[in-house]
Amino acid sequence: MANLMEDEVFMAFTTYAAIVILKMMLMAPLTAYYRITRGSYANEEDVSRKSAEEKKKLLKAHPDVERARRCHQNDLENVIPFMLIGLLYALTGPELSAALLHFRLFAGCRIFHTISYITVLPQPSRGLSWILGMLVTFSMAYRVLSTVLLL
Amino acid sequence: MANLMEDEVFMAFTTYAAIVILKMMLMAPLTAYYRITRGSYANEEDVSRKSAEEKKKLLKAHPDVERARRCHQNDLENVIPFMLIGLLYALTGPELSAALLHFRLFAGCRIFHTISYITVLPQPSRGLSWILGMLVTFSMAYRVLSTVLLL
Amino acid sequence: MANLMEDEVFMAFTTYAAIVILKMMLMAPLTAYYRITRGSYANEEDVSRKSAEEKKKLLKAHPDVERARRCHQNDLENVIPFMLIGLLYALTGPELSAALLHFRLFAGCRIFHTISYITVLPQPSRGLSWILGMLVTFSMAYRVLSTVLLL
């Protein structure tokens, strides 16, 4: 088994995969932070100690919380396909330099995507980083399907 | 490492996994297409050049956009478990014919599920393709747990 | 290929991964159950045989359905990163006892999280099980990045 972790491409994949997944997971504490500072909760038991009037107020959606949630959702829709396709891609034995280019580009895109989403940078910064990240995954999927095809 | 990609079951898994993930990823451009043609956006910076009145209109939800998003969400909830269970299933060394049956059935179900969701086919077409896809994943999970069990 | 499934750590990972994924997948039938018993649907074709007045009623959101959906979403946001990081973690060759501790703790946390979410247990039961589950994943990610780092 150890031989997988001795392969340089697989080591590079592991590194960048862990980085983008950690980035994605950090959206949850960020959402929690916005929920607390903006006073916007989704569950009644989270505001159980408050008066009925306060509860009503605290259970309303807040734009900052919704923005963080949309960003998290976009990560789920893009980072997880990258991970799964990337795992298969790493197993097809690509050149280390080509693999690193894919992984670095994707990680950079997603970090920039989150920054532009949360800090509300003007478009097309968010749109372009989203599309470029997807193209990286499509490029890896193309390599996977052109190397291994058994229908 | 190369020996994984020389295994026929793993090659079949790789092929169908890439297909269903690509299908899932295509929901994002479809949602973007509906957002543009139906004029329904989620973020203020996406409509920054419009007048205040137009903005209000463009930031409302549209049924077609919401439908594409629900379909995408259903893919996340079903395709990703299939991928992860399928990866473990492929490693348990099943018969190629049995594995192909699982993978083909699942891919067929999900493609039909998307068609019936987006083109609003009458029920139970969407419901049945959803349930059949889940049963395929359950069947693979059963094989995984009955072959490998270390609690 | 068979050598992966002869490794005890990988077998333990496979077992717990299948368990938490099955738990996550069961949120879908639970949501469907709430949709039917509470009379709350998201798609018009699901209520096509009803009168116009009834349709309007049946297409409204119900708190129980929304709660099950939030719980499912939280699973997606936590179980899938655990799976992906856990797969890489298992490949770094940790001690069996350390790996089992991580996997058992995570599975326990997520099962308790679902129970406390669906049965509306008072906080901080849901919050703590959510945070503890995340810490397990962070601990595995730390091990992965400190063993394998190729930027």
Question: What features would you describe in this structure?
Answer:
The structure is a homotrimer of 151-residue chains. Chain A has helices at 8-25, 27-38, 52-58, 63-91, 96-118, 125-147. Chain A is mainly α. In chain A, helix 2 (27-38) runs antiparallel to helix 4 (63-91) and helix 4 runs antiparallel to helix 5. Chain A is elongated, with a radius of gyration of 20 Å. The interface between A and B is medium-sized, with 34 and 29 residues.
Concise overview:
The structure is a homotrimer of 151-residue chains. Chain A has 151 residues and is mainly alpha-helical.
Produce the secondary structure layout.
3 copies of one chain form a homotrimer.
Chain A: H1 8-25, H2 27-38, H3 52-58, H4 63-91, H5 96-118, H6 125-147
Helix pairs in contact in A: 1-4, 1-5, 2-4, 4-5, 4-6, 5-6
Q: Can you tell me the residue ranges of chain A where pLDDT is under 50 for at least 5 consecutive residues?
A: none
- The number of distinct helices of chain A, counting runs of at least 4 residues, comes to 6
- Which whole number gives the mean pLDDT of chain A? 88
- The quaternary structure here is homotrimer
Order of helices and strands of chain A: HHHHHH
Please tally the β strands of chain A and state the result.
Answer: 0
Broad shape of chain A: elongated
